[in-house]
Write a structure and sequence with these properties.
- β1 and β2 form a beta hairpin.
- Strands 1-2 form a two-stranded antiparallel sheet.
- The protein is elongated, with a radius of gyration of 16 Å.
- It is built from 2 helices and 2 strands; from the N terminus they run ββαα.
- The protein has about 70 residues and is mainly α.
């Protein structure tokens, strides 16, 4: 492989978790950009929901880091 060891904790791949969070962050940024022009309540709800999902992913990433490096 590329010589880079993949850090895992109980079968959780840190790179996958980090990539998932990064993908969600990108999606939130895109939706917030749309929200600047479209002030509908549906888009507001969608942004809010996506932010909650992103926050859960961030919490999972941080929890995994804590356990991995403890």
């Amino acid at each position: 492989s590329d010589g880079q060891s993949v850090k895992t904790y109980k079968g959780v791949n840190m790179l996958e978790v980090k990539a998932h969070h990064k993908e969600l962050k990108r999606a939130v940024n895109e939706m917030e950009e749309k929200r600047r022009n479209d002030r509908s309540s549906k888009l507001w709800f969608d942004v809010r929901t996506l932010k909650k999902i992103k926050l859960n992913a961030k919490d999972k990433l941080n929890a995994t880091k804590q356990k991995l490096f403890a």
